Amino acid sequence: MTALTPGARRILDVASELFYAHGIHAVGVDTIAAESGVTKRTLYDRFGSKDALVAAYLAARDERWRARVTAAVEAENEPVRRALAPFAVLAEWVSEAPSRGCAFVNAFAELDEPDHPARAVIEDEKRWLRALFAAELARAGVADPDALALQLLVLHEGALVTHAVAAAPGAPAATEGAARLLVAAALS
Protein backbone atom coordinates (compact mmCIF):
# COMPACT_ATOMS: atom_id res chain seq x y z
CA MET A 1 0.00 0.00 0.00
CA THR A 2 1.31 3.43 -0.89
CA ALA A 3 2.06 5.99 1.79
CA LEU A 4 -1.01 7.96 2.81
CA THR A 5 -1.29 11.58 3.86
CA PRO A 6 -2.37 12.06 7.49
CA GLY A 7 -5.87 12.97 6.29
CA ALA A 8 -6.10 9.91 4.06
CA ARG A 9 -4.84 7.72 6.92
CA ARG A 10 -7.55 9.16 9.20
CA ILE A 11 -10.21 8.51 6.54
CA LEU A 12 -9.00 4.93 6.06
CA ASP A 13 -8.85 4.26 9.80
CA VAL A 14 -12.36 5.59 10.38
CA ALA A 15 -13.77 3.80 7.33
CA SER A 16 -12.11 0.56 8.44
CA GLU A 17 -13.72 0.70 11.87
CA LEU A 18 -17.13 1.60 10.45
CA PHE A 19 -17.09 -0.95 7.60
CA TYR A 20 -16.09 -3.77 9.94
CA ALA A 21 -18.52 -2.81 12.71
CA HIS A 22 -21.57 -1.98 10.59
CA GLY A 23 -21.03 -3.37 7.10
CA ILE A 24 -20.00 -1.73 3.87
CA HIS A 25 -23.46 -0.90 2.54
CA ALA A 26 -24.63 0.47 5.90
CA VAL A 27 -21.89 3.12 5.99
CA GLY A 28 -22.03 6.06 3.61
CA VAL A 29 -19.32 8.46 2.56
CA ASP A 30 -21.12 11.27 4.42
CA THR A 31 -20.66 9.39 7.69
CA ILE A 32 -17.04 8.51 6.95
CA ALA A 33 -16.20 12.11 6.04
CA ALA A 34 -17.95 13.50 9.13
CA GLU A 35 -16.32 11.02 11.49
CA SER A 36 -12.93 11.65 9.87
CA GLY A 37 -13.28 15.41 10.16
CA VAL A 38 -12.87 15.95 6.41
CA THR A 39 -15.12 16.95 3.56
CA LYS A 40 -16.55 14.45 1.10
CA ARG A 41 -14.44 16.17 -1.53
CA THR A 42 -11.29 15.36 0.45
CA LEU A 43 -12.41 11.74 0.76
CA TYR A 44 -12.95 11.50 -3.00
CA ASP A 45 -9.68 13.36 -3.71
CA ARG A 46 -7.77 10.82 -1.61
CA PHE A 47 -9.53 7.61 -2.66
CA GLY A 48 -11.51 8.38 -5.82
CA SER A 49 -14.62 6.43 -4.83
CA LYS A 50 -16.22 4.50 -2.03
CA ASP A 51 -15.38 1.30 -3.91
CA ALA A 52 -11.69 2.23 -3.91
CA LEU A 53 -11.91 3.07 -0.21
CA VAL A 54 -13.43 -0.35 0.49
CA ALA A 55 -10.59 -1.99 -1.46
CA ALA A 56 -8.05 0.08 0.51
CA TYR A 57 -9.70 -0.96 3.80
CA LEU A 58 -9.41 -4.63 2.90
CA ALA A 59 -5.88 -4.24 1.51
CA ALA A 60 -4.72 -2.62 4.76
CA ARG A 61 -6.34 -5.37 6.82
CA ASP A 62 -4.76 -7.99 4.57
CA GLU A 63 -1.35 -6.36 4.97
CA ARG A 64 -1.63 -6.50 8.79
CA TRP A 65 -2.86 -10.11 8.70
CA ARG A 66 -0.14 -11.32 6.34
CA ALA A 67 2.56 -9.61 8.39
CA ARG A 68 1.39 -11.37 11.56
CA VAL A 69 1.04 -14.76 9.91
CA THR A 70 4.38 -14.49 8.12
CA ALA A 71 6.13 -13.51 11.36
CA ALA A 72 4.55 -16.46 13.18
CA VAL A 73 5.54 -18.91 10.45
CA GLU A 74 9.09 -17.59 10.29
CA ALA A 75 9.42 -17.78 14.09
CA GLU A 76 8.95 -21.56 13.93
CA ASN A 77 11.63 -24.06 12.97
CA GLU A 78 9.61 -27.26 13.09
CA PRO A 79 7.75 -27.84 9.78
CA VAL A 80 4.39 -28.89 11.24
CA ARG A 81 4.37 -25.93 13.63
CA ARG A 82 5.13 -23.65 10.67
CA ALA A 83 2.18 -25.10 8.75
CA LEU A 84 -0.16 -24.62 11.72
CA ALA A 85 1.07 -21.14 12.69
CA PRO A 86 -1.89 -19.37 11.00
CA PHE A 87 -4.22 -21.08 13.47
CA ALA A 88 -2.30 -19.72 16.46
CA VAL A 89 -2.35 -16.25 14.92
CA LEU A 90 -6.09 -16.57 14.32
CA ALA A 91 -6.71 -17.33 18.00
CA GLU A 92 -4.73 -14.22 18.98
CA TRP A 93 -6.35 -12.07 16.28
CA VAL A 94 -9.95 -12.79 17.34
CA SER A 95 -9.17 -12.39 21.04
CA GLU A 96 -7.90 -8.82 20.62
CA ALA A 97 -11.18 -7.10 19.76
CA PRO A 98 -14.86 -7.80 19.34
CA SER A 99 -15.17 -9.98 16.29
CA ARG A 100 -17.75 -9.92 13.54
CA GLY A 101 -15.91 -12.74 11.83
CA CYS A 102 -13.74 -12.46 8.77
CA ALA A 103 -13.78 -8.99 7.23
CA PHE A 104 -13.09 -10.54 3.83
CA VAL A 105 -15.97 -13.00 4.01
CA ASN A 106 -18.28 -10.26 5.29
CA ALA A 107 -17.25 -7.97 2.44
CA PHE A 108 -17.60 -10.78 -0.11
CA ALA A 109 -21.18 -11.31 1.05
CA GLU A 110 -21.95 -7.64 0.48
CA LEU A 111 -20.12 -7.12 -2.79
CA ASP A 112 -21.97 -9.13 -5.39
CA GLU A 113 -20.37 -7.44 -8.40
CA PRO A 114 -17.46 -9.63 -9.60
CA ASP A 115 -15.57 -6.60 -10.94
CA HIS A 116 -15.72 -4.62 -7.68
CA PRO A 117 -12.10 -3.67 -6.88
CA ALA A 118 -12.35 -5.15 -3.38
CA ARG A 119 -13.24 -8.59 -4.75
CA ALA A 120 -9.70 -9.01 -6.09
CA VAL A 121 -8.30 -8.16 -2.64
CA ILE A 122 -10.61 -10.70 -1.00
CA GLU A 123 -9.83 -13.48 -3.44
CA ASP A 124 -6.09 -12.80 -3.24
CA GLU A 125 -6.10 -13.02 0.56
CA LYS A 126 -7.75 -16.44 0.49
CA ARG A 127 -5.45 -17.70 -2.30
CA TRP A 128 -2.43 -16.46 -0.37
CA LEU A 129 -3.41 -18.31 2.81
CA ARG A 130 -4.11 -21.52 0.91
CA ALA A 131 -0.75 -21.24 -0.90
CA LEU A 132 1.01 -20.62 2.41
CA PHE A 133 -0.56 -23.76 3.87
CA ALA A 134 0.43 -25.75 0.77
CA ALA A 135 4.03 -24.52 0.81
CA GLU A 136 4.52 -25.27 4.50
CA LEU A 137 2.81 -28.67 4.21
CA ALA A 138 5.10 -29.56 1.30
CA ARG A 139 8.09 -28.51 3.42
CA ALA A 140 6.77 -30.79 6.19
CA GLY A 141 6.67 -33.71 3.76
CA VAL A 142 2.92 -34.10 3.21
CA ALA A 143 2.29 -36.22 0.09
CA ASP A 144 -0.60 -34.10 -1.27
CA PRO A 145 -0.07 -30.64 0.21
CA ASP A 146 -2.61 -28.93 -2.09
CA ALA A 147 -5.50 -31.13 -0.96
CA LEU A 148 -4.62 -30.74 2.70
CA ALA A 149 -4.10 -26.98 2.25
CA LEU A 150 -7.70 -26.71 1.06
CA GLN A 151 -8.89 -28.65 4.11
CA LEU A 152 -6.91 -26.39 6.43
CA LEU A 153 -8.29 -23.29 4.71
CA VAL A 154 -11.83 -24.58 5.22
CA LEU A 155 -11.11 -25.25 8.91
CA HIS A 156 -9.50 -21.83 9.32
CA GLU A 157 -12.41 -19.98 7.72
CA GLY A 158 -14.93 -22.11 9.62
CA ALA A 159 -13.25 -21.18 12.90
CA LEU A 160 -13.79 -17.50 12.15
CA VAL A 161 -17.45 -18.01 11.32
CA THR A 162 -18.07 -20.24 14.32
CA HIS A 163 -16.28 -17.84 16.65
CA ALA A 164 -18.38 -14.90 15.49
CA VAL A 165 -21.77 -16.36 14.56
CA ALA A 166 -22.09 -19.15 17.11
CA ALA A 167 -20.37 -17.08 19.81
CA ALA A 168 -17.87 -19.88 20.39
CA PRO A 169 -14.65 -18.24 21.58
CA GLY A 170 -12.91 -21.62 21.71
CA ALA A 171 -13.42 -22.28 18.00
CA PRO A 172 -9.96 -21.16 16.82
CA ALA A 173 -8.18 -23.35 19.40
CA ALA A 174 -10.45 -26.31 18.67
CA THR A 175 -9.83 -25.90 14.98
CA GLU A 176 -6.08 -25.82 15.52
CA GLY A 177 -6.41 -29.20 17.25
CA ALA A 178 -8.38 -30.58 14.31
CA ALA A 179 -5.81 -29.21 11.86
CA ARG A 180 -3.02 -30.84 13.86
CA LEU A 181 -4.82 -34.20 13.59
CA LEU A 182 -5.25 -33.81 9.82
CA VAL A 183 -1.57 -33.00 9.35
CA ALA A 184 -0.50 -35.90 11.58
CA ALA A 185 -2.71 -38.30 9.59
CA ALA A 186 -1.24 -37.02 6.31
CA LEU A 187 2.26 -37.61 7.59
CA SER A 188 1.65 -41.14 8.88
What does this structure look like?
The chain is mainly α and 188 residues long. The chain folds into two domains: 1-48, Arc Repressor Mutant, subunit A; 59-187, Tetracycline Repressor, domain 2. The protein is built from nine helices and no strands. The protein has helices at 6-22, 29-36, 40-47, 50-75, 79-95, 103-110, 117-140, 145-165, 171-187. Helix 4 runs parallel beside helix 7 (117-140). The chain starts with 5 loop residues before the first helix and ends with a helix. The model has no long low-confidence stretch (mean pLDDT 93).
Describe this protein with a few key phrases.
Arc Repressor Mutant, subunit A, 2 domains, elongated, single chain, 188 residues, Tetracycline Repressor, domain 2, mainly alpha, 0% strand
The assigned CATH architecture of the largest domain is Orthogonal Bundle
CATH topology of the largest domain: Tetracycline Repressor, domain 2
Distance between the termini: 42 Å
Any idea what the radius of gyration is? 18 Å
Strand content: under 5%
Unreliable runs = none
Sketch the major β-sheet: none
The CATH class label of the largest domain is Mainly Alpha
Helix tally equals 9
Which H/E pattern describes the elements? Answer: HHHHHHHHH
Tally of distinct domains? 2
Helical content band: over 70%
